C-alpha cells in the first residue's frame, strides 16, 4: 500500500460504529500490513500516465545539464559547452529504465540516446551490468531493481510542457 492510498483505505472501512473496538483496530492494522508494497515508482511514465513519445530524447551533459550530447569516437561531446564525457550514456540508459520501460531493445537505445549505429548501442548496453534476454537482434536488456533503487528520482523532461 502506498502512503497516498491510506486516507481512502481508512475512509472505505465500515463506519457503523463511532469508535473502533480493539478487535477492529487489530483487524485494520493487519489489513494495512497485508496490503503493504515497497514503494517502487518505475517506470514513471506508466505510473504518471505520461506518453513516452513526449519525452525529450538524448544524452544529458553533466556539466551544463543540457540534453543532446553527440556520440563521437568513443566518447560523448556536448555541442553547448563542448565538455566530453565517456560515460554520459550510463545516466541516459538509467533514465530510460526509470521512465519508459523494463526491457530495452537496441532500437529503444538508439532512439533514446539518438545514436545511429546498432553496433554502438550494443556496445554501450553490453558495457553496463544489465541482464540480457535473448540474442542478436531480438536481445532485450533489463536493469535490476537494485541498480535503479540506488538512483535519485529524476523528473522527466517533457516536450511542450508549457502547453496546458
Ligand atoms: Zn554541456
Structure write-up:
This is Transposase zinc-ribbon domain-containing protein. It comes from Psychrobacillus faecigallinarum. The protein is built from 7 helices and 7 strands. It has 164 residues and is of the alpha+beta class. Among the domains are: 3-34, no CATH class; 44-56 and 87-149, Arc Repressor Mutant, subunit A (Orthogonal Bundle). The model has no long low-confidence stretch (mean pLDDT 87). The two termini are 31 Å apart. The structure holds zinc ion. Zinc ion binds next to loops. Zinc ion is lined by residues 61, 63-64, 66, 78, 80-81, 83.
Put simply, the count of helices is 7
By CATH reckoning, the class of the domain at 44-56 and 87-149 would read Mainly Alpha
CATH superfamily of the domain at 44-56 and 87-149: Winged helix-like DNA-binding domain superfamily/Winged helix DNA-binding domain
Fold-level CATH name of the domain at 44-56 and 87-149: Arc Repressor Mutant, subunit A
Mean pLDDT: 87
Oligomer: single chain
How much beta, percentage-wise? 5-15%
Strand order of the largest sheet: 1-2-3-4
Regions with little confidence, pLDDT below 50 for 5+ residues: none
> Can you write the helix and strand succession as a string?
HHHEEEEHEHHEEH
Q: Can you tell me the overall shape? A: elongated
Structure classification:
alpha+beta
Q: Could you tell me the number of beta strands?
A: 7
Bound molecules: zinc ion
Report the helical percentage.
Answer: 25-40%
Radius of gyration: 22 Å
